[in-house]
Every structure is written in C-alpha cells, then in structure tokens.
C-alpha cells in the first residue's frame, strides 16, 4: 500500500502547512474545550446555581456570537477603522485567508446574475422540499419509537423529539450562526484540499466531530444549564447539516443555504413544538 501511504502523507503535509489549518484546529478545540468545561462546572452543586445567573447567559451569548460569526469574520480579513499609512496595522476588507466566494457569500453581479440566483433558488426549494419530507418521515418514526421509552431514573419524562417554542427571529439567528460556521469549515478545507467536494464533506465530518465531543449534544440537553431536553434540536441540526452540505455543492450560495435552513427549522419548530417548555428555559 505504498501509494496510499504516500497519498495520506501528502494530504497531512498539505493540511499542516496551510495557513488556514491552525484556524480550523483552534475553532474545533475552542468548541470542545468550552463545551466540556461547561459540563464539568454544571456537574457541581455550586456550578448549577452559577449557571442560572443572567450574567452567565449573557457571557454565553457573547461567546456564541464571537465563535460562530467572529472567527469567520477574522479569517475573511475583517474591517479595521484605521489604515496602515498612519502607523497602525490593520486588516483591509476581504483581504484575509478566505475570499467571500469561498464561503458562498455572493451577491448580484456579473458572476451571479438574476438568472443564476433564480436557478439556485429553484434548486434550494426542490432540495428543501425533499429534505422536509425525508426529515418529517424520520421524525415521525423516531417519535413513535421513543414514545414508550423513558430515560433512567425515577420520575423521568418520556424521551421525545419535541421543540420548545421560539420566535421566528431566534430561529433565524440560530440558522445564521450554524450556516456561517459550517461555511467556514467547508470553505477553508476546500481551499486547503483544492477540491470543493472534499472540502464540503471533510468540513461536515469536522462538524460531526465537534458534536460527538460535546457532552451536552451526546446527552440531548441544552447548554449552559444542561437541564432542558434538547434531543430534538440536536437531531434536526444533524439533518440540516447534511442538507446544507448538499445544497452548497449544487448552488455555491450561502444565502440560499441559509434561507432553506431557516424555512426547514421553522417548519419543525412549528409542527413539533413542545407546549411544556418555555423560551426562557431554552434561551
């Protein structure tokens, strides 16, 4: 197997030598370390009371904002109010390690005329409808199977894939966070590997690795308190990640991916809403 060993060695060298690779590794490690640290803290009596503090929630919101949007923003180059000609080094717009098009951030122009946007929108609606039917069928079967099962422990509630009520804008913000984060992984890996297909699916694998190393995700509960059932959202995000990856391959347009993600999420949050949970619990 010398050819395989040589190929794996070349792939490893390409990853390690790429300027984008430290960003990917740092992002993954930050997610895993933060999730496991929160899990360890909430496992103590003092930690549980501390997790309920509004200041901790604000800190969690700020951290989520920077992680999902701030990191891709910096990799794209960012915008800095000062220019280098006054002695203060700064980033220039879109002069980073990734181009906007690498993440699917496109707009109306010569490369993306109205006809191409309409074609991408049609592709998105078709794949979105197929995903809605497939995920809906899977959700019905999973809900039927879990209806008679109960988690260990006296007085535990039946397992379910229900969703707590959320306003449309909160679902949109969640979709934006996830789509930009996923686009960063697949765009960066596509540039490193010089192959869009490899970048999309290796990026999807990186997202799955994040989830598998997250104790909140594995146990189906919502951070930071870890007391609210969240298996429904974890299951739906996994399905949406696959849908987004396939849609990006077909359209190369992050805005279409975001729109379909949001519409699918709204559909499931409306159809599978849990009347027992509250927005404050899930915030």
Runs with pLDDT <50, length 5+? 82-88, 152-158, 275-283
Count of structural domains: 1
Strand content: under 5%
Specify the number of helices: 11
Q: How is the biggest beta sheet arranged?
A: none
Query: Which of globular, elongated, flat, extended, rod-shaped describes the shape?
Result: globular
Structural class: mainly alpha
Order of helices and strands: HHHHHHHHHHH
Task: Let me know the number of strands.
Answer: 0
Give the radius of gyration. Answer: 21 Å
Q: Helix fraction? A: 55-70%
Mean pLDDT score: 81
Distance between the termini: 52 Å
Nutshell version of this structure?
68% of the residues lie in helices and 0% in strands.
Characterise this structure:
With 283 residues, the chain is mainly alpha-helical. The chain has one domain (2-148, 160-282). It has helices at 2-17, 21-42, 45-51, 54-76, 114-146, 168-193, 196-212, 215-219, 231-251, 254-271, 279-282. Helix 9 packs antiparallel against helix 10 (254-271). The radius of gyration is 21 Å and the shape is globular.
Comma- or semicolon-separated keywords:
11 helices, about 280 residues, single chain, mainly alpha, disordered C terminus
How is the secondary structure organized here?
Elements: H1 2-17, H2 21-42, H3 45-51, H4 54-76, H5 114-146, H6 168-193, H7 196-212, H8 215-219, H9 231-251, H10 254-271, H11 279-282
Helix pairs in contact: 2-7, 4-6, 5-9, 5-10, 6-7, 6-10, 7-9, 9-10
């Amino acid at each position: 197997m010398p050819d395989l060993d040589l190929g794996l060695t070349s792939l490893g060298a390409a990853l390690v030598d790429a300027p984008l690779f430290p960003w990917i590794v740092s992002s993954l490690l930050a997610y895993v370390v933060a999730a496991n640290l929160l899990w360890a803290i909430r496992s103590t009596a003092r930690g549980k009371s501390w997790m309920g503090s509004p200041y901790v929630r604000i800190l969690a919101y700020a951290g989520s904002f920077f992680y999902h949007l701030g990191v891709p923003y910096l990799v794209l180059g960012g915008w800095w109010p000062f220019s280098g000609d006054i002695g203060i080094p700064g980033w220039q717009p879109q002069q980073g390690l990734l181009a906007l098009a690498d993440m699917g951030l496109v707009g109306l122009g010569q490369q993306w005329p109205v006809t191409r946007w309409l074609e991408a929108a049609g592709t998105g609606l078709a794949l979105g409808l197929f995903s809605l039917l497939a995920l809906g069928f899977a959700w019905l079967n999973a809900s039927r199977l879990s209806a008679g099962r109960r988690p260990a422990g006296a007085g535990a509630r039946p397992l379910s894939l229900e969703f707590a009520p959320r306003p449309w804008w909160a679902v949109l913000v969640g979709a934006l966070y996830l789509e930009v984060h996923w686009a960063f992984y697949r765009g960066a890996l596509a540039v490193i590997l010089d192959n869009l297909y490899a970048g999309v699916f290796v990026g999807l694998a990186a997202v799955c690795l994040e989830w598998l190393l997250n104790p909140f995700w594995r146990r189906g509960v919502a951070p930071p308190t870890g007391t609210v059932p969240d298996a429904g959202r974890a299951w739906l995000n996994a399905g949406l990640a696959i849908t987004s990856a396939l849609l990006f391959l077909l359209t190369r347009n992050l805005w279409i991916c975001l729109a379909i993600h949001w519409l699918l999420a709204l559909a499931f949050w409306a159809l599978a809403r849990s009347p027992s949970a509250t927005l404050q619990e899930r915030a």
